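INTERNAL TRANSFER SHEET
From: sequence group
To: structure group
Subject: Transmembrane 7 superfamily member 3 isoform X2

Please process the attached sequence and return the structure record in the designated field. Keep the field labels unchanged so the import script can parse them.
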Amino acid sequence: MWRLRLLVLGVLAAGSAEAQANSSDGFLEFSVGKFTYFLLSRPFPREAILRHISSNVTFLLFQIHSQYQNTTISFTKTLLPGTTRTGNDQGLVFMLRPEQTVCTWYLETKDAKPVQNVAIPLFYSERDPIPGGCNLEFDLDIDPNIYLDYNFFETTIKFAPANLGYARGAEPPPCDVSTGQESRWRLRYDVYQYFLPEGDLTEASLLQHLQRMTEVPQVKASAVKVATLTSDDKTTVSFSSLWGQGVIYNVIVWDPSLNTSAAYVPAHTYACSFESADGNCVSPGRVSTKVFSTAFALLGLFICFFGHRFWKTELFFIGFIFLGFFFYILITRLTSLKYDVRLVLTAVAGSIGGVLLMASWWRFGTLMLCMLCVGLVLGFLVSSGTFFTPLGNLTVFRDDGVFWVTFSCIALLILVIFMGCLRILNILACGVVGSYSVVLAVDSYVFTSLSYITLNVLRRALNTDFRGAFVGVPFQTKAACTMAKAMGETETRWLMQVLSS
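Return from structure group:
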């Protein structure tokens, strides 16, 4: 299998007119600014060499990438702390000595399977800032790497502060002696996010798209800038985790006085594991989630097209959502029960809520109470959609009080607007909420970004740290087509009903 992958990657590299390494046994020769594909095996470490380095180059940034297997890169043949990095997105900065024209690195892997890599050496001048040049937290003296960590809720990246550039053989500028405009404190950091094609978990695709995130001009042209940090800010940024969706992050450090910049080593994640036996990237979602969401979607699909005519069934559906949502948040925050147990208890609580709302109509006939619940569920979905837009990334909404008050006001506003026309409110709720339940079911089988309309709100209710995460997602055509098709037919139906009434 790995031979087939290597063949595909070789054809891709040749078609892109990219450099291939001049290699012999254990030896790789690189060219500045040229990407090189090569295979690395555990018994056969490689020596990487770069020749004919220009005299106007002050430092080199050599970086190497693989999909999920680890590769070790080192300045020395004997691996030593402080000169070695291991991972799937790693790089080293080499400060050149006067008159130096050749640079060497050493590459190896401890993985049992061969590792497909792509690597590139980049050069910078003495005017360019040095990524990670003021590192005080990580192992390397100069650390240009982005450290990435993820969980169910958020993906967090960290990086070391940069330093001002300096000439070959000169002493590096001090990092923390002063905070004036002549020091590294004038530097700015632009954080970029790049989404891989939806549903594409192939190694070839990742290594190809990583090439757009290594150099400053390509990063600015291809990725989306999500934040700008000053030297006074913490060099940590959080994002909403997107299970099964490939994302590449990079940071560009910019010197406003000299108008020069340099890029860190890009880091990527799928927010999942390729090697996990339960819920890995290839087969996302638990069995319990698929069963629950599929049953919920079948009921929602019925409500989408027939809910307005089957009033009691709609009330059960709305009551199920109303009580089930709050019950799941409650037991998740207050207990340490396993996920499958919480899901079963949520289904039971939701069913009780549906029966209670249906029974209240049957026993008391209180239309306003029932429509209040219907309007709040529709308002919740509309409010969630509002914060799914770039509005949700505004700094003011990182305060929980501001967020939840604004969220509640939007939900209540929808209810108030349609209180005078309950028929339209009910038909809209059936169509929008019912069709969205289908989108949630699709997400348990394949990645759909539209599911994060409500999932981001749920995460914020469950995890207080999520308030600082950026919630940008790619536009996924699969989910959009699913929802548009369901909602398109529904809108036609309710419009005909409204016109005929």
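Handover comment: The longest helix spans residues 339-364. Residues 192 and 226 are 6 Å apart (CA to CA).
Transfer complete.
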